[in-house]
Amino acid sequence: MNNASHLKIELDLGSYRGRLARPLAMKIPELQRNERLTHVIFASQFTKTTIEHLTALATKIRTIARTKDGALFLQGLLPHKRAMLYFTQVSTRTFLSFTAAAQILGMKCSEIRDPSVSSEYKGESPLDSMRMFSSYSDIIIMRSVIADFAECCAYLMNDLNEFHQRSVPVINAGSGADEHPTQALLDIYTMKQAMDFNSNSEFSRRDLNLVKLRHKYPDLQRGLEGKVYGFCGDLARGRTVRSLVQMLSLYKEVTMYFISPDDPKLRVSSDLVARCEAMGVRTFTADRLTDCIGRLDVLYMTRIQHEHGSEAEKIRLQELAADCTLTPELLSQMKEYAAILHPFPRNEEIPSEIDSDPRALYFEQAVNGMWARTALLAYIFDVDAAVATYYEKSFSQFHDYNQAVL
Ligand code: NCD
């Protein structure tokens, strides 16, 4: 996006300044209707109940999708709906997984990835463009370098709804350096699977047995509560960490290590640490992975976001980041059952020789993204109950009365 269109969006959003400046607690009720999320803009919109519902739904959907009949059932759920993917900032996984998610449910997709081929080139205001998209589609999934753009679009849709005009849900698929709530959802889904220690899971190559693990780690429990999470890399400009730590703060007895070179360009922001602490999270900062790697249950790696700085700065930050690179030697100090995640793309922070280690879950994480996003779309369009009914009918075990303990 060039500077002129950047400036145009900023000017366009000016009329929302008052609404943007409000505390989150005032905004969140406006983004939902009848206790269900309508627009998905912030990670803090998700309650633990919603997360549990969506992750369970994702597993049901992927189980159903394994048979032809199941896949056809899913495709029959939303063939009358169209999704607009407005991705004016680069994307591989988020764009493709949202497209696939919509297709799994039978939806049709349109896309704009380059505003220079839309009427924005002729000076159309981005908010007018959004209103046009809502005329042709039933949901807008958007990624922008402008942090507030998705939030403003949600307010625009609410205003249209108020005046009985066509209005559609807006999903934030990455807003500047601020938030990436659907990435946080899929990250949590992956961590829940990893910390379930279910050696029979059909969707994980990890073969971990909790009873055996307890010989070495006597206090180990299933689930996300009471665990130690490490976030490593560019914690200032990476939006995935910002969203994920807010979602993880919902879980009890959580400890978080923020690991980054001691440089203001990369260090975690104090507002994020304060938010976590207000939710009861114990927080620590470190500037080398080696200082805490043996204590972590989950390590969430991120790349240095060089696109935000100059070439000279790139070299400087790259050198600083050496202590935040996961090496085979550091890997050997990690707990046997730990999980390593990365939102991708990666650079040098995880060498590919680590990929075959069963703790490396980043490729599974990318697959999980498609199912978590399918679950989110099914929920937004209110077909989650139909999925659950089909699942119960097709997959739940018949009750064996001989086994019953009365
Ligand atoms: C991330 C993003 O775009 O925020 N990627 C993703 O969506 N999976 C992370 C990044 O760009 O580093």
Query: Structural class given helices, strands, pairing?
Result: alpha/beta
The tally of strands reads 11
- Put simply, the count of helices is 16
> Strand order across the biggest sheet?
9-8-7-10-11
The shape, in one word, is globular
Poorly predicted spans: none
Give the C-alpha Rg: 22 Å
SSE string, helix = H, strand = E?
HHHEEHHEHEHEHEHHEHEHEEHHEHH
Span between termini: 66 Å
In percent, how helical is the residue content?
A: 40-55%
**Would you tell me the overall average pLDDT?**
93
Largest sheet: 5 strands, parallel
**Ligands (ions, cofactors included):** N-carbamoyl-L-aspartate
Task: Tell me the β content.
Answer: 5-15%
Furnish the topology, listing elements before pairings.
Elements: H1 3-13, H2 17-20, H3 24-27, E1 32-33, E2 36-37, H4 48-64, H5 68-75, E3 82-87, H6 93-104, E4 108-112, H7 126-136, E5 139-144, H8 149-162, E6 170-175, H9 181-194, H10 210-216, E7 228-232, H11 239-248, E8 255-259, H12 270-278, E9 282-286, E10 298-301, H13 311-320, H14 328-331, E11 339-341, H15 362-380, H16 384-395
Structural key phrases:
single chain; binds N-carbamoyl-L-aspartate; 406 residues
Describe the structure.
Strand 3, helix 6 (93-104) and strand 4 (108-112) form a beta-alpha-beta unit. This protein starts with a helix and ends in an 11-residue tail after the last helix. 41% of the residues lie in helices and 12% in strands. The radius of gyration is 22 Å and the shape is globular. The mean pLDDT is 93. The chain has a 5-stranded parallel beta sheet with strand order 9-8-7-10-11, covered by helices on one side. It has helices spanning 3-13, 17-20, 24-27, 48-64, 68-75, 93-104, 126-136, 149-162, 181-194, 210-216, 239-248, 270-278, 311-320, 328-331, 362-380, 384-395, and strands at residues 32-33, 36-37, 82-87, 108-112, 139-144, 170-175, 228-232, 255-259, 282-286, 298-301, 339-341. The protein contains 16 helices and 11 strands. Helix 4 crosses helix 16 (384-395) and helix 9 packs across helix 15 (362-380). It is an alpha/beta fold.
